[in-house]
């Protein structure tokens, strides 16, 4: 059993839109209040010599809701369970921060995106393309596909451009067919979004030059409006709509590309990019200012616009559903190592796109060479696993061309397959 989500466009009435906006605003305000409350309590405890405020969990904060509603009567307009869930979400955010899985929880800004969740299936019901929510009544949504599985919770959200959506988190058995008999390696890039070891090139829905120009024009028009005015709000809605259009196209392409890889190949090997380090700012400091800051900023924007991190997440769960191994490989020197003679040298990379081995003369696209080496590293890790060899392989001739490989597959959810491990690829 696993979890999946179904998202549909919500078609609320004018009354439902007002109530949804008030509920999203109440949840945002409560999140900010609880975050400030915990921060202040931590500072007081620290000054008194205490070690922390672990007692201030979701149950403790939920006990304050009655007093808050007396001080702020408008909080009662929001369904009670959505307020409780907001406090649980904040508690989980703090838990993830203390465990090192995410950053420190941030305050939420007014306007733009907003959401609220109904966590208990007893609170809502679904009938065809209608959903009944507490205080909202029956609201229609654009049902474009069947909902499979048991609905665990419902989330209502807005994108800031006047569009509302509803998401159903469902639990069930979700499987994908697999028709592949050979594995594939994939190299992510800017000129070519995703280059495969079989020579194919897949698009991840990166924004076009026209998209960036239109976005910059809309942002410039919004910047000239008086903040808070009706014209400013309409201009901000147009900017949000353009962002949403670009994000929808990217998500659609990523779903299609990850589905193709998971269903048409025996295993998938992807380079394990450290996006946080790769997209770090090059501005530097006042004492040591950076160089080529504008060029690095543009490169960072293009890398982030392709959504490599989200694509990796999509590919991981789809490979799990298809029952095939998914491997992550350290991409260091994969575009400089010759897959034919294994000579690794910077001179092999003539330029950004071309590869020519100075030892054996092999020529090809540099991204295709990297994808080939990534696939070979994944094959080596799989061969060692099936042979029962868990020790490190013999290092190659150049120590810097060592590649660490991480294996992922269905065994993470209890299904038979290859366990998660760290292997040293030859």
Overall description:
With 426 residues, this protein is an alpha+beta fold. It is 39% helix and 19% strand. It has helices at 14-47, 58-62, 65-71, 80-98, 209-223, 230-264, 275-278, 293-305, 308-322, 366-386, and strands at residues 2-11, 114-118, 125-127, 130-133, 137-142, 150-158, 164-172, 184-188, 194-196, 201-202, 268-271, 326-329, 354-356, 363-365, 403-408, 422-425. Strands 2-6-7-1-5-4-3 form a 7-stranded antiparallel β-sheet.
Mean pLDDT: 82
Main beta sheet:
7 strands, antiparallel
Amino- and carboxy-terminal Cα gap: 36 Å
- Based on DSSP secondary structure assignment, what is the total number of beta strands? 16
Radius of gyration from the CA trace?
Answer: 25 Å
**Structural class, please?**
alpha+beta
Brief descriptors of the model:
single chain, 426 residues, alpha+beta, seven-stranded antiparallel sheet, seven-stranded mixed sheet, 10 helices, 16 strands, 39% helix, 19% strand, disordered C terminus
């Amino acid at each position: 059993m696993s979890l999946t989500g179904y998202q549909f466009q919500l078609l609320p009435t004018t009354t439902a839109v007002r109530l949804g906006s008030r509920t999203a605003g109440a949840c945002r305000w409560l999140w900010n209040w609880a975050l400030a409350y915990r921060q202040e309590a931590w500072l007081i405890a620290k000054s008194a010599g205490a070690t922390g405020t672990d007692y201030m969990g979701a149950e403790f904060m939920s006990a304050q809701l009655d007093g808050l509603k007396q001080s702020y009567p408008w909080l009662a307009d929001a369904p009670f369970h959505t307020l409780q869930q907001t406090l649980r979400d904040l508690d989980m955010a703090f838990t993830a921060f203390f465990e090192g899985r995410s950053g420190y929880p941030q305050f939420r800004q007014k306007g733009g995106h907003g959401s609220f969740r109904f966590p208990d299936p007893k609170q809502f019901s679904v009938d065809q393309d209608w959903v009944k929510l507490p205080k909202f009544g029956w609201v229609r949504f654009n049902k474009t596909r069947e909902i499979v599985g048991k609905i665990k919770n419902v989330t209502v959200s807005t994108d800031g451009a006047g569009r509302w959506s509803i998401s159903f988190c469902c639990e069930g058995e979700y499987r994908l067919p697999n028709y592949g008999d050979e594995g594939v390696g994939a190299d992510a890039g800017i000129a070519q979004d995703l280059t495969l070891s079989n020579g194919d090139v897949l698009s991840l829905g990166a924004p076009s030059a026209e998209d960036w120009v239109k976005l910059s024009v809309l942002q410039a028009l919004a910047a000239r409006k008086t903040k808070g005015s009706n014209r400013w709000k309409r201009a901000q809605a147009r900017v949000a709509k353009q962002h949403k259009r670009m994000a929808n196209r990217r998500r659609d392409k990523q779903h299609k590309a990850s589905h193709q890889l998971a269903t048409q190949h025996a295993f998938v090997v992807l380079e394990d990019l450290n996006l946080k380090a790769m997209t770090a700012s090059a501005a530097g400091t006042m004492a040591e200012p950076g160089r080529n800051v504008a060029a690095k900023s543009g490169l960072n924007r293009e890398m982030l616009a392709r959504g490599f991190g989200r694509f990796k997440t999509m590919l991981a769960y789809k490979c799990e559903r298809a029952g095939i191994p998914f491997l992550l490989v350290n991409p260091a020197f994969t575009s400089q190592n010759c897959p034919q003679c294994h000579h690794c040298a910077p001179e092999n990379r003539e330029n950004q796109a071309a590869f020519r081995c100075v030892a054996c003369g092999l020529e090809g696209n540099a991204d295709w060479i990297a994808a080939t080496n990534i696939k070979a590293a994944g094959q080596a890790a799989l061969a060692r696993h099936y042979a029962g060899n868990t020790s490190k392989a013999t290092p190659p001739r150049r120590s810097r061309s060592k590649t660490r490989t991480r294996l992922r597959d269905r065994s993470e959810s209890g299904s038979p397959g290859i366990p998660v491990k760290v292997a040293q690829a030859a």
